[in-house]
């Protein structure tokens, strides 16, 4: 699990989702785009929450390691979305991703 800090709020998010969120935020920023991504997280009160992140060139996001035994929230859909979008944005302009 990792702490993801956004707008002065820290949430616990699974490693893969947190890392992909950071990679996608970087790509969005580089390309001048924006997107809203929702992930499941553990809030400061220990409850599972849905957190929506507005990602754009002004996004300030920090991801840091966390030492916890908590079970990661299920982020299969968010991870799939982030992975697909990251791959799409990483491709040279105009080339299909299966080349």
Secondary-structure topology with pairs:
Blueprint: E1 2-6, E2 9-13, H1 15-31, E3 35-42, E4 48-55, E5 61-65, H2 76-90
Antiparallel strand pairs: 1-2, 1-5, 3-4
Helix pairs in contact: 1-2
State the oligomer. single chain
Q: What count of helical segments does DSSP give? A: 2
Cα-atom Rg, whole angstroms?
14 Å
How is the main sheet built?
3 strands, antiparallel
Termini separation comes to: 34 Å
Q: Please state how the strands of the largest beta sheet are arranged side by side.
A: 2-1-5
Query: Beta-sheet strand percentage?
Result: 25-35%
Number of structural domains:
1
- For the residues shown, what is the average pLDDT? 92
Please report the total strand number as a whole number.
5
The run of helices and strands is EEHEEEH
Question: Which structural class do the helices and strands define?
Answer: alpha+beta
Give the overall shape: globular
Walkthrough of the structure:
- The chain is built from two helices and five strands, in the order E-E-H-E-E-E-H.
- It has 99 residues and is α+β, with helices and mostly antiparallel strands.
- The strands form two sheets. A three-stranded antiparallel β-sheet has the order 2-1-5, covered by helices on one side.
- The chain is 32% helix and 31% strand.
- It has helices spanning 15-31, 76-90; strands at 2-6, 9-13, 35-42, 48-55, 61-65.
- It has one domain.
């Amino acid at each position: 699990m990792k702490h993801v800090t956004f707008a002065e709020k820290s949430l616990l998010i699974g490693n893969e989702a947190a890392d992909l969120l950071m990679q996608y935020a970087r790509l969005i920023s580089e390309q001048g785009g924006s997107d809203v991504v929702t992930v499941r997280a553990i809030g400061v009160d220990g409850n599972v929450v849905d957190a929506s992140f507005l990602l754009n060139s002004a996004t300030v996001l920090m991801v840091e390691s966390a030492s916890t035994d908590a079970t990661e929230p299920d982020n299969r859909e968010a991870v799939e979305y982030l992975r697909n979008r990251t791959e799409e944005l990483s491709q040279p302009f105009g080339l299909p991703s299966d080349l």
